[in-house]
Amino acid sequence: MSDQPSISTIQTMADVWDAYRSELQGVEEQIQKNLNSPVALVNTVAGHILSSGGKRVRPLLLLLCARLCGYTGADHHLLGCLVEYIHTATLLHDDVVDDADLRRGRRTARRVWGNQISILVGDYLYSKAMRQIVDFRSHIVNEVLADACWKMAEGEVLQLYYNGNPSMPEADYLRIVEHKTAGLIAASCRMGAIIADASPAQQTALFRFGQHLGIAFQVADDTLDYTANGDCLGKALGQDLRQGKATLPLLHLLGHCSESDKSMIKDRMETRSLTDQDLTRIIGLMRQYGSIVYAVDRARRFVDAAIADLDQFEDGTPKRALMVAAEYMVTRDR
Amino acid sequence: MSDQPSISTIQTMADVWDAYRSELQGVEEQIQKNLNSPVALVNTVAGHILSSGGKRVRPLLLLLCARLCGYTGADHHLLGCLVEYIHTATLLHDDVVDDADLRRGRRTARRVWGNQISILVGDYLYSKAMRQIVDFRSHIVNEVLADACWKMAEGEVLQLYYNGNPSMPEADYLRIVEHKTAGLIAASCRMGAIIADASPAQQTALFRFGQHLGIAFQVADDTLDYTANGDCLGKALGQDLRQGKATLPLLHLLGHCSESDKSMIKDRMETRSLTDQDLTRIIGLMRQYGSIVYAVDRARRFVDAAIADLDQFEDGTPKRALMVAAEYMVTRDR
């Protein structure tokens, strides 16, 4: 374990990455070293998406939670790698399900190698992670990770079920977000606590922290889809709506706008016929009815809940870094 | 545990199914009971393919291997169900990868609900199985099953890599077959031995039995694609070739036929332009050059190896049933 960076230097997310760069390098090496299938195509395709600028949020949180609970070992290298493989597997399948052409500004694997390869390499990365996780011989690690994967799949199906349908209760929206995004983040946080031999109460607190942070992340991301400067992410605004996905700002708007606006929005979602003019109008309505403010506020409250989950832990650099990471979920511009 | 059926009554595969029908009923109930996602669409889609006449070969072999090793409990109900879920997950993904419209004479899930749902419900069934398997809290069961899943994914990618390419070494063909088909069958057999607390030597012998039987099954299946009465399976002959897949009879033929015939076959595979006339000619060439006989003989030798793997076990009804099941791999007509 390297020397703990000083708490006073951690002010922004960039400071967090800087402070833990060398500790995360081990995760990065594991990610590359582990891509050793005798079937070269697997390594090429997996390497394409794994080297496309992902921020390794899950391995970072796993590491921070482990350090918060006093862990001094290096199991986070392999565990962080495996969590990232699982995350990558879901991205490969998501891109097929969403017909996505771009991810992080680069062509998706399905655009380069086709849907078939993307499905099978996703299966490969997921099953490789499950194969390696069992070698830790920890029933609780197995349980936490398998639970997260199962819920992710359920969240994805629920999201697809509501595709093109704007009449989704907010509770189901939150359930989708919790399962498909927050579950693996929460599992990563809890795994950090597990390898540190933290108490059940601490494990539960860090699981909740990850859950709250993960929901905040996704709600903020869904809101940025109506507000961000598209250049930062290499994709245009309104992507969710174009794909028939109702997210929190839209659900709020549909609950407040006029019947005629509601009909227009429903029609564009169902027929996938959104024009740029429609989008400008919808974003204007969202500002008028306070839908953006509402969604940002919801995300903010999940961040506050995440920070409150850290109450029982001692102050220090890891706690400071986790708080900054939580704040970052609602302050980033993608 | 019900009374053991008498050894003398087990002559054919139908006798095996009859003898163990009531013991397999528990697997069937588990398969249905376990489809309890709050997302109803998951249950509908999974139920569609799980109720489409699959023979539950893997749960049967798991049960027979457990009984062979003296097991008297009922863990095979849930374990058999989970293995069947994993098998079903691979079928859902395979049908997307192969653009398949029919399976067992019924419309595939992707034809009824689309590729997206098939991918995600496949992910769901797989992750549900992995989630439930960890509740057994057996490291060796986790390891055996996760290993099989990982190898299956690798086999699938290797198969896709060779798609449309007739220049595949026979060793790679056998590697694909071993990974994609035999691995989960071998794991099922070994899990039967594990729940019976069988010795490591017995576990290894039954794993090998499953591996040999699984390879025989796939080689025979690939051969039936050039010989079977298509009506039995609800699909026409030559499907593998139409999909650009080279299997054992074709690889043998390509190693023996004239250069002009080889060019014709390569062209049809690469351009996916096989006519019925081409197929009739290719099947004629296979008969002329002994390719069908060669492949049937290879499958036969794997069955013999599987039966030899049972040498160390005591005679009795389970052993008799396993031998009949192994024989069935090369005597069935689909």
Automatic annotation (TrEMBL), chains A, B:
It comes from Nitrospira tepida. The keyword Metal-binding applies. SUPFAM superfamilies: Terpenoid synthases (SSF48576). One of its GO terms (molecular function) is prenyltransferase activity. GO terms for biological process: isoprenoid biosynthetic process. Gene3D superfamilies: Farnesyl Diphosphate Synthase. Keywords: Magnesium, Metal-binding, Transferase. Belongs to the FPP/GGPP synthase family. Its cofactor is Mg(2+). The keyword Metal-binding applies. This is Octaprenyl diphosphate synthase. Coiled coil: none annotated.
